[in-house]
Amino acid sequence: MMSLPSCGRILSSLLLLSITPALAIWPVPEKISSGDKTLWIGEDIHITYNGQRLPWNINSPAKCKGFSSAEIVKGAVSRTLKAILEDAFVPWMLYDRLALEETEPSASAEKTFITSITIAQNGTEKSSKSLIGDIDESYKLSVSGVGEVKIHAVSSIGVLRALESFSQLFFQHSEGGVYTTMAPVDITDKPQYEHRGILFDVSRSYFSVESIYRTIDAMAWNKLNRLHIHATDSQSWPLEIPAMPELSGKGSYAKGKTYTPEDVESIQIYALQRGVQVIFEIDTPGHFGVAALSHPEVVAAWQATPWQNYCAQPPCGQLKLNESKVDKFLDTLMDDFLPRTNAYSSYHHIGGDEVNFNAIALDETVGTNDSTVIQPLLQDFIDKHHGRVRKHGLTPIVWEEFPLHYNVTMGKDVVVQSWLGDEAIRDLVSRGFKTIVSNYNFWYLDCGRGHWLNFDNGPAFQTFYPFNDWCSPAKGWRLIYSYDPRAGLTEEEAKLVIGGEVAAWSESIDETIIDSILWPRSSALAELLWSGRTDAAGQNRSQIDAAPRLSEFRERMVARGVMSAPIYMPFCTQAMNATACEFVM
Amino acid sequence: MMSLPSCGRILSSLLLLSITPALAIWPVPEKISSGDKTLWIGEDIHITYNGQRLPWNINSPAKCKGFSSAEIVKGAVSRTLKAILEDAFVPWMLYDRLALEETEPSASAEKTFITSITIAQNGTEKSSKSLIGDIDESYKLSVSGVGEVKIHAVSSIGVLRALESFSQLFFQHSEGGVYTTMAPVDITDKPQYEHRGILFDVSRSYFSVESIYRTIDAMAWNKLNRLHIHATDSQSWPLEIPAMPELSGKGSYAKGKTYTPEDVESIQIYALQRGVQVIFEIDTPGHFGVAALSHPEVVAAWQATPWQNYCAQPPCGQLKLNESKVDKFLDTLMDDFLPRTNAYSSYHHIGGDEVNFNAIALDETVGTNDSTVIQPLLQDFIDKHHGRVRKHGLTPIVWEEFPLHYNVTMGKDVVVQSWLGDEAIRDLVSRGFKTIVSNYNFWYLDCGRGHWLNFDNGPAFQTFYPFNDWCSPAKGWRLIYSYDPRAGLTEEEAKLVIGGEVAAWSESIDETIIDSILWPRSSALAELLWSGRTDAAGQNRSQIDAAPRLSEFRERMVARGVMSAPIYMPFCTQAMNATACEFVM
Is the ipTM of this structure higher than 0.90? Predict the structure, then answer.
């Protein structure tokens, strides 16, 4: 059996991306070169930031406060060194079978250590506002053969991205110590898409703040930068609104299953400091049922049955469309909530999906499902509601049904999120809308786990057997990775596709399993949107190249405490079988 | 909103199984009745076993050694009280929205406590042998309104089953303390199937002994009683064989990724003490590739390519069929391994699935894929290999291909495991074979998570897009629960279906995700096989009845440390919405 590193030395590096663990940075950088020299790393490193010595503390990596560049970088350096020195893994599953001990560098030979990390940042940040919008995330990273590390970036977030790539060079040695075998390393890198995110549904199931933090951590490892929190829906209202305490007071699932204003602030700060901007969605006017428990005056069709006539899933409930109390309600709601997000986010997501016209017929302020009556009301709704968002300095995001299905006109500032597929995307960009893609045929992570409704033993059993969910089967990482959200668009149109999100709707997902729902599948999205569907040669990226790198990165995530599902069995990850689990026709 | 317990008081108990948490014992007992009285439970309980005071220790529930009835029961009592007193959960997700505090019993009112647990066992066990085979698992459990608990059983395993049901009566109070609201309780219970199991594949992915223990724990909570360990396959040989150390020495994935003889013994003892009999499978003559690394003389078609011509998945490799060294090899292997299992198990599983005749053509001792040549060789193989199993006092289990596809005759003692579906089951029982069902259309837990092979960007991409696995989509618990393995059989034939196993083949499953792969779906199998597909009235059990009980039981599993997936969102588990998530036509 040929052991991997010697193999890596013989062949040129780019060809070997698929079988060389030490080059397996995820998402793959724009340009990368590496050598075959071993470097070790310990705590004795001289770290400077723009010429000043940078203090760091491996034991309190999360404790950074505030938004100055130096604070952001200090926190990131502390976390990076913790990941490298404490959370590395012994890569037995990446080397040949039973060959770990003979493949690792000698632990007894003289060691060259990383001596310095020199960080240079051109720009500076002074407040949270500097960390939102279209940040320059580019960076250069070099690791010399004698252990000198240099990082150049425009923004502190670029520094974070560099540090993450740096952390992925290292492995735990089976006899102790941490090493890389690929020095010198040179990386030049930047993302292909501005918006790279995860939709996290905390309304249908409640998620602890800790599980949100853990997800943000993993997002930062994946260089993902947008956490879309679907905060309210018809099933529960976990979001505390101090001006309207009755909303969560009557609409949350249970005492304590809420997000306090402190939680909302902490989540946003925690995320921004990791290069992740949080976007809250308070879905309107549909998906609003549970608010009827505290505000029956603003909700129509609450718990209307049979639900399938009035909404997409139980329980039904929509904001009334011709009721002045709704305007006051939304004024109060937005005046409370948006001032608590606009320092940390560019966006507010107003929802806008799946408005049901039969439910509007039950709304006594409208009383018909006639679209000629309803359309002007929806136009008025969106005008007013987008106005509330803009009033607080935020850009509205809306699901695509408003422009595409309800024939509503919207400001060109509005960003549209599309879940319905390629035709919808083409339609949106042809109308000039910036578009975020969450095509359910590819990027819905909840699909394919079986239906969550219970069917009676009679006709329902016969009709719905074998009880698949609506978007079955599951979208595996290979399918997620295969999708090009800009395919078939002109260059100008393609620019309007600013990115995408995988969506983890939580009808049957909660925090016990969220890690393996999200990972490694969100990692597939992360590489697609950071590195692009095509490589430098213009060829579609291949599963055959991606799988070994993703397998390695998955082990890093697990070692760092996020329980990602595996790519495949160790037989396929071990180097000598790199081609055995390929299917080439 | 009507709170649940009062609801439970008004309506009769059987009708309310679907919405009354405190009656939600999983799997549902044969007969159960309950009241509406609250009882609390603490550590001050007088526990006797056959008239003798039974010492127990909540802090070392796993420490029981040996196989005397009293020791088994003592361990079970200790674990049960730990589960009740330390690992109970606050059932906010089972009561109405935000109604926990008003629905729980008053923590300040005078409390009636459980005072005694009186255990009477008719039979006695003296060795591990008493705990294998078709054990009498029946039991009676009563909890009086004044806190006296009585358990009657024939076997210590029956006592275990009673204690498990007892443990499921209790909840953690939000202000501290543990209670049930359903006293008095009377249960009479016994299983419908003898064999209720899980197939755990530790060859394709390695699983720690701890993860196997955790699975055994959860099996005992579910009253499952057979753990089928698929111990070796073509990908890795993790099983240490002291007479042939080279098998794992060259065939395991990495140093330490093996099961020592001590592990094998510990797993079997741990399982038996929890009412679970372990059945090891050393798959032959197919699925034997990796043994070629140490014993090339006994393996044909090792890593033959293209693999799809010679085996079901990479890497290929089968035992040679006309090679005397194979006989000696298997003699040595079985003489080493079986004496280490026959004190703890009734069975040895010889595999026998997916023998590939083209691979036999590559076997120079045969050299043809002509079935007229191969058939007598397979007959000879099975005769000899079953003889090895019988020599050590064990009953052979074999996958169905040997009798059904290879036209091989076998002793009537042999138990056949069927994965190919209803026609195969009918064929097997019509030939008089005891049959274990693992119909892949229903009970394969690995299905539907996406393919694990990597496809090139050319024709393979086009052919295999969207990269579903062979048995996609996933088998949800509702589908698992819908399947009657005895459907369409005569009464005599039905008796030959001794039970079933869900199968968790581990091509892309490892211990980070095994909990949510197995649970709650194995729980669906557990109720189906313990309680039967039909209820006392002869009606098929309904998802509508099962889902709320399974949701509650899932919370118990999570609280006890097994990360089961949820059934659905809290909206559906909360009592006031018990019917909202039903689909009735």
Answer: yes
